């Protein structure tokens, strides 16, 4: 089982996956995850790929395409880092994300946890494997 967190900021739903600790999804797996009927559902999928020293992430659209981060993505990242204890206090957020992190961390965000079963993880991995076999 794998736990992901979904955040809603300004009516956009972000799913955050720890790509270091858990599974690093490919484009096809992101599409399945983000699909509201076949997967979990999200407008954006953020894959955390960093550490407390250097927080970084990849942001995808629900179609699996890489997207440039905007302010709301950083709001989600700040909340995720604090929730996971990766960056626990305001000083660490500012040092790693810049001065805007203080306003970002205080932004209103709704969040919930989603548990992915081993069966669903197998489906995600199969999507990525089939995609790489075609390429």
* N-to-C order of helices and strands: EEHEEHHHEH
Instruction: Pick out the low-confidence regions.
Output: none
Give the neighbour order of strands across the main sheet: 4-3-2-1-5
Which second-level CATH architecture applies?
Answer: Roll
Give the overall average pLDDT.
Answer: 83
CATH class: Alpha Beta
Helix tally equals 5
Spatial extent as radius of gyration? 15 Å
The N- to C-terminal Cα distance equals 29 Å
- CATH homologous superfamily label: Diaminopimelate Epimerase, Chain A, domain 1
Into how many domains do the coordinates divide? 1
CATH topology: Diaminopimelate Epimerase, Chain A, domain 1
The dominant shape is globular
Q: Total number of β-strand segments?
A: 5
List the helices and strands and how they pair.
Blueprint: E1 2-9, E2 12-18, H1 27-34, E3 44-48, E4 57-61, H2 71-83, H3 90-97, H4 101-105, E5 110-116, H5 118-134
Parallel strand pairs: 2-3
Antiparallel strand pairs: 1-2, 1-5, 3-4
Helix pairs in contact: 1-5
């Amino acid at each position: 089982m794998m736990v992901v967190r979904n955040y809603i900021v300004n009516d956009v739903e972000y799913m955050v996956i720890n790509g270091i600790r858990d599974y690093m999804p490919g484009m096809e797996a992101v599409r399945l995850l983000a699909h509201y009927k076949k997967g979990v559902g999200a407008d954006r999928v953020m894959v955390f790929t960093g550490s407390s020293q250097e927080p970084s992430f990849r942001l995808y659209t629900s179609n699996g395409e890489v997207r440039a981060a905007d302010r709301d993505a950083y709001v989600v990242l700040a909340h995720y880092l604090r929730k996971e204890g990766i960056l626990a206090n305001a000083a660490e957020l500012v040092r790693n994300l810049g001065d805007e992190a203080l306003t970002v961390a205080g932004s209103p965000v709704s969040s919930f946890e989603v548990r992915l079963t081993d069966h669903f993880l197998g489906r995600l991995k199969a999507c990525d494997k089939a995609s790489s076999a075609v390429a």
